[in-house]
Structure formats: C-alpha cells, structure tokens
Specification:
6-stranded mixed beta sheet; disordered N terminus; 359 residues
Length: 359
C-alpha cells in the first residue's frame, strides 16, 4: 500500500510538469475513449490531472459507464460544462469551456431501432459558436471488432462501420456542407486499410469535402497510435472543407497525447488507472482566409499551388523530418503537385514559414 501511494504521487508530479496542449488563441478539440469510466477509485483523480494538462476547449469522450462519476469529474472544473448520454450501460459525453464557447444545442441522432445495427451507440452532436463562427462536432463510438475484411452482410462488423460512416456523411453533406463540422471518436477501424476493405471510402474518395486530420499519425510510427494494445490507430478526427485552410495554418496541430509515457510502468499503468486508448487532439488556428501577409505582400495557396505577389529570391521546402525536398530561386509561384501527400514547411528569404498540407 505504501509503494502504491508513493507511485501515484510521483505520477501526478511528473504529469503536472508537462506543458499544456491547448492555447488561448486556438480552438482545441480532443477525442478520447476513456474505457468504462471510471475503471477504479483512482480514475477520476488521474483523469482530472490529465484534463488539466490538456486544457482543451472541447473534449469528446466515449465509453462513459457512470454518469454520476462523470459529473463528479466535471465538478472539479469551473471553466467546463458537462453533458453525458448513456444508453444501454455505456455512453458518450462532452466537456466544453462555457466561457470560450457559446453552446447552441446537444442532441443524438439515429436513435430509432432501425439504426441500431449500424449505430450501437447513437452519435452525439454538439453545435456551438466560437469567435463568431458556427461549428458542429459529431461524437461517435462505432461497432468494434471484426476480421479486417469487408463483407456484404448486415452482421459483418466492418460493413456496419461502413454503413454508419455512409449515413453520417450523407447527413452532414445534406445539412452542414458549408458549416464547419468535425466527425470524431473511436471509429474502431484503421484508415490505412486496403481500399477494398476500408470502411472510410466515403472520406477517402472525397478529398475535396473531407480529410482525416490524423492521417499522418495513422501512417506514421506505431508508437504514436491511439490504441497501443493491438497496436492500431482507431481514434480519428475528420474535418470538412470549410476547415481545410485553418488546418493548413502554421500553428494548427494534430497529435496523440501520450500521457502513458509519464507513468512509472508506462502504458500498463495508464491502462490500469485510466484507459486503453490515448486521447487524440486537434489544435486549429482559425483564419477567415488562406491569405498570408509578409512585408506588406501577400501569398495565396490554391489547388496545391502557392502564389506570391512578388518574386521570391530563395525558397526551400522541408518535410516534417527536416529533409530538404526542394530549393529554387527567383520564383513567384510554386506548383507543389510533385510532392507526396504530407505536411511541409516552406521557408523564404523573407524568413517567413508556411505550413502546407499536400493532399
């Protein structure tokens, strides 16, 4: 018992020393499957400490088992309001900053019996305003498991996820096409699956409408995946076209928050006390346009071409690993279609840096 007490005190001290994810100038949104919350009598305290370090504007939770415990967790935060909806012993929830966001409404969709096969947990919609812009978040926990193969059967787990994604995208396309919206949650499948078995073809085949903000996580190092137990990356954040320019901004960011690294025994301790999933966090620097100003000059980014108002004497392009992908002189535009998909930094002789996402 003494050893456990010292261990928990050490964990709290270490985690509280880390820098926060959220900032006052960005919209910070997190999805987090928190596995049968609360797992034990230490879970509320551990999650409280993690939320303090995340400091996001909105956290969308999956797998809430006890609504009273969730509202107890929320009571520790004056700046957050809470909403939880539990159906059939497990549910979805939100924490959102009540002074930063102006809440419009929270509601469920696809609750009727005919939708239960595709949606064992009804999606939870959060509509709000932030800096005079309208936003909608759709929180999901799709059907789990399967064999990785997409089969034409209503009982096939992959097919159930495929149908659920299709219904969500059909609804958002019909109702929110020109409104900022984000589809997130434990979607219980991998976006890097072969296309014939991929449940996310509705997103992948429509890059002009949607992108996976977490695509580079999914195709990157497995150490940063959201579900280390398998390991796999199952927790996703999808943004629609009205947010593309915001996501391209230099201060926008997407990452898995590896709080398990601060525990004495790593993920095994985190899983025992908190969850088997890590949170995935999106930071958006909002702008009304994809126009950038430097030295009273302007640049525009459109269709993977970066246009400069004046000729730039030197331009270098680097990938996220710091590799120089391109260098040239005396250009007034760059056609980036030669680059593979990914995130790049473009540095000019004006000491201006642009973050560009090539799709």
């Amino acid at each position: 018992m003494i050893k456990l007490f010292i261990y928990l005190f050490l964990i709290t001290s270490i985690s509280l020393s880390q820098s926060k994810f959220g900032t006052e100038t960005t919209l910070d949104i997190v999805t987090w499957n928190i596995q049968n919350f609360p797992k034990n009598d230490r879970t509320i305290e551990e999650v409280k400490n993690i939320i303090e370090k995340i400091d996001a504007d909105i956290i969308a939770f999956q797998e809430i088992s006890d609504s009273i415990a969730f509202y107890e967790l929320a009571s520790y935060f004056d700046e957050y309001s809470a909403f939880v909806k539990i159906n059939y012993q497990i549910g979805l929830a939100y924490l959102y900053k009540n002074k930063t966001l102006e809440l419009d409404t929270i509601y469920e969709m696809y609750t009727d019996y005919e939708y239960w096969n595709n949606f064992p947990r009804a999606p939870l919609f959060l509509e709000f305003s932030y800096k005079d812009q309208k936003f909608i978040i759709i929180n999901n926990h799709l059907k789990c498991c399967g064999d990785g193969k997409l089969e034409n059967s209503k009982y096939d787990e992959e097919n159930r996820r495929l149908q659920a994604m299709g219904q969500i995208l059909s609804y958002t396309n019909a109702n929110f096409q020109d409104i900022n919206h984000i589809i997130l949650g434990d979607l219980n499948d991998e976006i890097q699956d072969p296309i014939e078995d991929n449940v996310f073809t509705g997103v992948i085949n429509n890059p002009d409408k949607y992108i996976f903000a977490d695509k580079e996580i999914a195709f990157g190092d497995s150490e940063n995946w959201s579900y280390p137990s398998y390991p796999s990356h199952l927790d996703h954040i999808i943004i629609n076209k009205t947010l593309f320019d915001d996501f391209y901004n230099l201060n926008s960011e997407i990452k898995t928050l590896n709080f398990d690294a601060y525990y004495e025994n790593g993920f095994s301790d985190y899983r025992e006390l908190v969850s088997d999933h890590r949170p995935v966090a999106l930071k958006l620097e909002l702008t009304k346009t994809n126009t950038h100003i430097y030295n009273n000059k302007t640049t525009y980014f459109h269709n993977n071409i970066l246009y400069f108002e004046e000729t730039i004497s030197t331009i270098s392009i680097y990938n996220t690993l710091g590799k120089n992908m391109y260098h040239n002189t005396n250009l007034n535009y760059i056609d980036l279609n030669f680059l593979p998909e990914g995130i790049y930094l473009i540095i000019t002789n004006h000491n201006q840096t642009y973050k560009i996402i090539k799709n």
